[in-house]
Each structure stands twice: as structure tokens, then as C-alpha cells.
Write a structure and sequence with these properties.
The chain is an alpha+beta fold and 605 residues long. The protein is built from 17 helices and 21 strands.
């Protein structure tokens, strides 16, 4: 497929200034709904609108679709889904509300949260009924704050079923690939379930068969494709949505940037889309949905909305530069920055490769494993290392200038690196010299030598490790409680007892990896009502303008309930936005309640 909109080549228009203005002249294009952005939220909006019989035009400013969703784990946090019920998970909306109320000190967002919980299962049923999107409940996969009332140990997160990228044909090239550091053998995606047999293929006959199938499938793929076509996680979700949109003949344009919104009588009546060097005015009879991904990748907007936070790196898609925010505020939309923290956070390590490229790698699973601690600039622990990635970074910020923890250092021994890997370094098959030479992995034969190389006090680091080792031997972390909750233990080593998250560190050599705070998505965003209608400074709806995903302000105010708490609300409010602008009745929306999805072809499972 071309990287431009074929229809645009037939439109003979002169370039127009990209300013938000009242429309007077003729329109170049006419559609019912324009979607700006192609992450999970934008793709959901386009799918639901097409199913509701609307003419949809989906614009993506870059050459590939998927945004941050395509490189993410792709899970969505949806309490009380049909999938959860089918697994016998005893959950209720009341429990989920109690959990969110205990977690979020933001009473003003309760209406948004209630709408989300009410519409979540409905939105998922709708997609599975009418599209090729398919999910499964992830059990166990706990909420992040297990100590709070209403927290669940699993069932709430949903994951996309794997997808065969070959079904997309030439459109496979349109799906933004995962981070190269997350693929193995140069281009093979693996899920969490794939990792054990690949690491230890000779552990059992079933492990060998599973590993052999994965590798052989990948080798066959590489004869014809630049990467493996067995797609999992966020990549599978994006691919399934693209496949469904093509089957519904929805118009998709890449390299098509929305540069202005246009109003008639106070109502958003269309937009200016820049394609092939031309500004094309697109009339929208029903509305414009902004789903451009927020601004986490834009340094200037980070500086504006994250003042005082030491943030230099981002894990968000490079295209998440605040387009939706800029477009909407130019016509009077309000920004909601009353949040607990302006972003969802992840600790990330940074590797500068010999070829001049850079990797920013998220640390999700290694921190909870036994035999690792995190220390600040004083060589002291400052956090339960097995807490959620979001809470870990908030603890990094909390030290401030008194006990700085940016960067923080993950400390471990050689055995840990061999068994678990750390950051970019995978377990078992390792060549550490490249990482040591680049300064990514810092080595010391003794703790004193390591302390000197990371510029912390040697006596403090030695005392910290000694205290940790004494607690690890007893199986109880008296200082921070590592391994004390179900969530902590979920990412630990179940074979290690009595505490799957604690093991003494040593003997040497010892290693350190520096980690930095990195946003995975912004929480500051456009103020919306419960139908995702964008509001102005007087809290009045701007007719014809909707926002979802990270373009809308976080409905949790920057608090992170559990896995999938960014993509989940994005998809649900995309669904609510389209149902609102389409004027769908309760009867139409009830079409999916209790309905079963169509059968899944074997090639898509």
C-alpha cells in the first residue's frame, strides 16, 4: 500500500494556512467522522463508527499505524468482562469501584470512572461481536495495589489473542513493529508464556516442542518477511484492528497529519489534513475524534506540564507530540492538569550502541527477582523493588535533592545476570563485554569497587547489601517488604523459597545498571465529559469534538490501578464517544449484551 491516501491525489487544491478558523469555502472531502491517530483508542473509534454505519476517515501522521500500543504489552484493564466470568473469577463492579475509590483521591472523576466500569464489558463484547478483535482473560495478573479493598489477583486484565500477520498481506508492513530489543533472533515476537521453553528448551519434551515450533515458524517467515508474522501483545491487538478495518473498507491514510480544526457556529465541522504536501479540508458531519497519543514524547510539552521533574527519556511512541492537545486548545478546549502525577511512569535503562543508535529499555520483570536491590545516590535502598513500575518511579522522584535517586542503580551479582538477565541483557546466552564497554553494565569485583564506579559511598553500599542479605536469608524484607504481596510475588521466582523475591547478593563480581524515569504516556490531557466530548474552559461541550486515549485527561488522575490501565480507558471512551456522536440508542448498544463473538479462524488463534 502507498504511504499516502490515494484519494488525495485526485483532489486539486491549493495549500491553505493551517489555522483554526471559521469555515466559509467549499470542503474538499466529506465524511461522517474523522479519527486522528491510530493507537488502540483511534482504531477502536474507527471500528465502532464503521459498524454503526458511518463513513470514517482515519488519519495517521506517521508511515505506520499502532502508536505506543503496537510496542506495548497490549493488555486492557476491564473488570467484570465476559472472559473473566467464564473463568469463574468472582468479581463485581462494586468491588472494582471500591478499589478505585480507595486508590484515587479525586472525587471529581468518579462519574468518569463509573462510566468506564459500566461500559468496559459492553465495549469489549461489541468489538468481539462485530470485528476480528479477540481477547482472553489473564489469570493470574494482579492489580498493583493489593493492600487496598476491592483489589483483585487476576481476571481484570485482558490480552489480545495472537494474530497471524500473513492475513494482512501487503498491509503487514503498515503495522508498527515492536521494539527491536523485545524481539529475539532479530525479529521474533515472544509472549511471557513463550519465554520458559526458549530459555530452557531441553527442560522437558513439551518445552522442546514448543521452542522448536516457535523457531521453525519464525525461520519460515524470514524467507518472505522482514520479521516474524506470529504477532502477540500490543502488536496483535493493532493487527487485528487493522485487519477488521480493511474488511470493513474503512479509509486509512498514513503520512496524513491533521493540522487544524475548523468550526461553524461554534461546532467542529471539519479539519485540515496535510497529505502529499497539500492541505485538504475534510468536512465531518458527525464529529472529529482526537486519539493522537498525548505528548509524552515531546520535550517542550514535558517541560511545560512536568515542571521540575528530571525526565530526559521517553518510552512513548516518538509521534506522541501533543497534536491533539494543540489542535483542541487552539479552538478553546480546556486542559485538565489536576492530576496526581503528569504521566504514567516506567524505570528505563539507556544503551548507546556502537552504531550511534540508542535503546531505552523498560524494566518490568527483573526488579522483582531474588538477588537484586535498587539504591540511590547515597548507596541506600529507597523502595520495594518489586512494586509496580509506576510506583517505583514515584519513589525515585520522592527522594528529591535530599536523597537523589535519578538515576537509581539496580545492584546484583553474576548469578542473577546469568539466571534472569537484567534490562537489555537476556538470561542464559550472554555476551557481557559489549554492555560493559558501552557503560550500560557496570562491573566491580567487590562492592567497594562497584561503589566507586557508580559514585556512591562504599561503606553505605556494603552496609545496605549486608542488611538486605540478612533479611533475604530470613525470607522477610523488614525495610521495604519486598515479596510481601501477591503482586510482588507474581514477578518473582516461584521456585525460590521462602520468599520468591529475596536472595542474598554475592559473591562477586557485582554489577549495576542505571535506570531513569521515563513516561509511557501522559496523564495531563483534554478535559472531557463522560461521553468523551471535549469541554471548553467553562466546562461546556465543544460540539463535534471528542478525545480518547492519552489525548484525554486520565480518568484516574495519574494513579495506576493495574495492567492495561492506559489502553483500557482509551478503548472504552473511544467506544462511548462514537456511540454518543452516532446517536446510538440504548437498544442498539444492548445488541452486544450477552452475545457471543463469531468463531475465530484457526489462523487467528
Amino acid at each position: 500500500m502507498s504511504n499516502s491516501d490515494p484519494a488525495a491525489d485526485d483532489v486539486d487544491v491549493a495549500p491553505r494556512p493551517s489555522t483554526a478558523q471559521t469555515a466559509h469555502a467549499d470542503w474538499d472531502r466529506d465524511v461522517d467522522m474523522l479519527v486522528c491517530g491510530s493507537g488502540a483508542a483511534g482504531l477502536t473509534a474507527a471500528l465502532v463508527a464503521s459498524q454503526q454505519g458511518l463513513r470514517v476517515f482515519l488519519c495517521e501522521k506517521t508511515a505506520q499505524i499502532g502508536g505506543t500500543t503496537a510496542t506495548s504489552g497490549g493488555e486492557i484493564w476491564i473488570p467484570c468482562s465476559r472472559h473473566s466470568v467464564a473463568l469463574g473469577h468472582a468479581d463485581t463492579i462494586t468491588n472494582a469501584e471500591a478499589y478505585l475509590d480507595a486508590l484515587i483521591d479525586r472525587p471529581g472523576s468518579r462519574a468518569h470512572r463509573a462510566a468506564y466500569l459500566r461500559s468496559g464489558p459492553e465495549a469489549i463484547d461489541y468489538l468481539e461481536r462485530h470485528t476480528d478483535v479477540r481477547f482472553r482473560s489473564v489469570m493470574p495478573h494482579p492489580d498493583y495495589q493489593q493492600q487496598l479493598p476491592g483489589a483483585a489477583e487476576g481476571g481484570r486484565p485482558l490480552a489480545s489473542l495472537p494474530f497471524d500477520g500473513r492475513l494482512l498481506g501487503a498491509d503487514f508492513a503498515l503495522v508498527r513493529p515492536p521494539m527491536k530489543d523485545f524481539m529475539v533472533l532479530g525479529g521474533m515476537m515472544v509472549s511471557r508464556d513463550d519465554i520458559p521453553p526458549l530459555i530452557k528448551p531441553f527442560a522437558s519434551g513439551s518445552a522442546f516442542v514448543a521452542a522448536a515450533r516457535l523457531v521453525l515458524r519464525y525461520l519460515r517467515d524470514r524467507i518472505r518477511y522482514p520479521r516474524g508474522t506470529r504477532l502477540v501483545m500490543g502488536n496483535a491487538l493493532v493487527a487485528r484492528m487493522l485487519y477488521s478495518l480493511r474488511r470493513k473498507h474503512v479509509e486509512i491514510a498514513v503520512d496524513a497529519r491533521v493540522v487544524a480544526l475548523e468550526r461553524e457556529d461554534g461546532h467542529v465541522a471539519g479539519a485540515v489534513v496535510r497529505m502529499n504536501g497539500k492541505d485538504v479540508r475534510v468536512r465531518t458531519r458527525r464529529g472529529v475524534v482526537l486519539a493522537t497519543g498525548g505528548f509524552a514524547a515531546d520535550a517542550a510539552l514535558r517541560s511545560r506540564y512536568m515542571p521540575g521533574l528530571p525526565v530526559e527519556h521517553s518510552l512513548a511512541f516518538a509521534g506522541d507530540t501533543g497534536d491533539g492537545l494543540s489542535l483542541a486548545t487552539a479552538i478553546g478546549a480546556a486542559v485538565d492538569n489536576d492530576v496526581f502525577t503528569p504521566a504514567y511512569w516506567m524505570p528505563a535503562s539507556v544503551m548507546n550502541w556502537p552504531d550511534g543508535s540508542r535503546s531505552v529499555f523498560p524494566h518490568i520483570r527483573d526488579r522483582a527477582k531474588p538477588g537484586l536491590i535498587a539504591v540511590n545516590a547515597r548507596g541506600k535502598r529507597f523502595v520495594n523493588e518489586s512494586t509496580s513500575y509506576h510506583e517505583f518511579v514515584l519513589a525515585m522522584f520522592a527522594g528529591g535533592s535530599q536523597a537523589p535517586a535519578v538515576p537509581a542503580y539496580l545492584i546484583c551479582d553474576r548469578r542473577f545476570v546469568k539466571e534472569n538477565g537484567i534490562g537489555l541483557i537476556r538470561p542464559v546466552w550472554q555476551r557481557l563485554k559489549t554492555y560493559i564497554d558501552a557503560g550500560y553494565l557496570i562491573e566491580g569485583c567487590t562492592l567497594a569497587e562497584l561503589a566507586a564506579r557508580i559514585d556512591v559511598d562504599a561503606a553505605a553500599l556494603e552496609a545496605t547489601v549486608a542488611r538486605h542479605n540478612a533479611d533475604a536469608a530470613a525470607g522477610v524484607d523488614r525495610e521495604f517488604g519486598k515479596g510481601s504481596t501477591f503482586y510482588n510475588r507474581h514477578y518473582g521466582d516461584p521456585a525460590h523459597v521462602p520468599n520468591p523475591c529475596l536472595r542474598p547478593i554475592g559473591p562477586g563480581p557485582f554489577f549495576a545498571v542505571a535506570v531513569y524515569p521515563a513516561p509511557i504516556g501522559s496523564t495531563v490531557g483534554l478535559r472531557i465529559d463522560e461521553n468523551a466530548n471535549v469541554l471548553d474552559e467553562q466546562r461546556r461541550p465543544i460540539g463535534g469534538l471528542y478525545a480518547c486515549g492519552n489525548d484525554m485527561a486520565s480518568i484516574t488522575g495519574g494513579v495506576y490501578p493495574g495492567p492495561g490501565s492506559t489502553i483500557g480507558p482509551g478503548m472504552v471512551f473511544a467506544y462511548r464517544a462514537v456511540m454518543h456522536l452516532a446517536g446510538a440508542s440504548d437498544a442498539v448498544r444492548a445488541d452486544v449484551v450477552g452475545a457471543q463473538p463469531a468463531a475465530v479462524p484457526a489462523t487467528q488463534r
